[in-house]
Amino acid sequence: MALLIVIVDQITKWLILSTLEPYSSTAVTGFFNLVLVYNRGAAFGFLANSNFDVNLFFLIANFVVLILLFIALRTLCPPRSQSATAIWLIIGGAIGNIIDRLVHGHVIDFLDFHYAGWHYSAFNVADSTITVGAILLAMEILGFRVIFRKNDSAKTDSLI
């Protein structure tokens, strides 16, 4: 799953880089644009204008988080569980954004949703999978399960 996320993320970023000029916008619908934005910081451009090397900081932080996520997968998460799915989504997204930082020195964002002149921060496929993974993980912690998992008593898959 993580590999598929990385492939889709990098292909979409390549398409945007090859078709749009930096900081340009193309309207798709009345509430959605394609843009080409370079995010040198974290989510919502946090720390983008800092005086220290933000790219190096986030590269190191992302690698540490990836190691911790892989450890969690091996030691805490049963296969095919909601938490394992959530972690694989986060890992795929994190790797997609790490590739951007290594290759470009920043993350490529291009999805721009807006309403009545208000624009949500631009984001990408990797950011989306990280967000979905984090939501699934939070739901799991709170006891809400939405992912198929093996039902041992019936020997079939069931939605829990």
List the helices and strands and how they pair.
Elements lengths: L1 H18 L5 E3 L4 E8 L14 H22 L6 H23 L2 E9 L2 E2 L5 H17 L6 E4 L4 E4 L1
Antiparallel strand pairs: 1-2, 2-3, 3-4, 5-6
Distance between the termini: 21 Å
Spatial ordering of strands, largest sheet: 1-2-3-4
Unreliable stretches: 154-160
Percentage of helical residues?
Answer: 40-55%
Oligomeric description of these chains: single chain
Can you give the mean pLDDT?
84
Rough outline: globular
Total helical segments: 4
Number of strands: 6
Strand content: 15-25%
Please tag this protein with its features.
4-stranded antiparallel β-sheet; 160 residues; two-stranded antiparallel sheet; 19% strand; alpha+beta; 6 strands; single chain
Could you explain the architecture of this structure?
It is built from four helices and six strands; from the N terminus they run H-E-E-H-H-E-E-H-E-E. It has a domain of 107 residues. Helix 1 runs parallel beside helix 3, helix 2 packs antiparallel against helix 3 and helix 3 runs antiparallel to helix 4. 50% of the residues lie in helices and 19% in strands. The strands form two sheets. The chain has a four-stranded antiparallel β-sheet. It is α+β, with helices and mostly antiparallel strands and 160 residues long.
Brief summary:
The chain has helices at 2-19, 54-75, 82-104, 125-141, and strands spanning 25-27, 32-39, 107-115, 118-119, 148-151, 156-159. By secondary structure, it is α+β, with helices and mostly antiparallel strands.
